[in-house]
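job 3f2a | input accepted
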Amino acid sequence: MRNFDWTEDENRCFGCGVNPWGLKLDFEVRGEEVYAETELDENYQGFKGTAHGGIIATLLDEASAWAIASNTGYLAPSYSLECRFLQPVPLEEKIEVSGRVEGVRHRIVTSSSQVRDESGDLLAEAKVKAKVLEESVKVSVD
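job 3f2a | predicted structure (142 res):
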């Protein structure tokens, strides 16, 4: 789903870009939501055996960003990210990250995102507010 107006070398995004230390998330659209699966390794550890809270916040923020891009066709940087960490996010196990747009008003987009384990249990969630940028950063989403 990564179709930007710049080269892969220019996309160093920690969440979705060509970045050796990044998460390399690749979202797909399913209805009104976007989804990505990933498995975090020990490099993203916080407490023993679990993902660092900052990494979880990044997953949630990235899912919201892709939901917004999918819905509006534009990039929209977050200016508010409210996370709830409900259960530890395990390392070395598949998790799913999802996001959806909740509303758009005057170029301000509200969205929500979630992290779930393989069983579908909710591990973390977020509410995000973002502002749609100018057309120069339009993104095509397949």
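job 3f2a | The first helix runs from residue 53 to 72.
job 3f2a | closed
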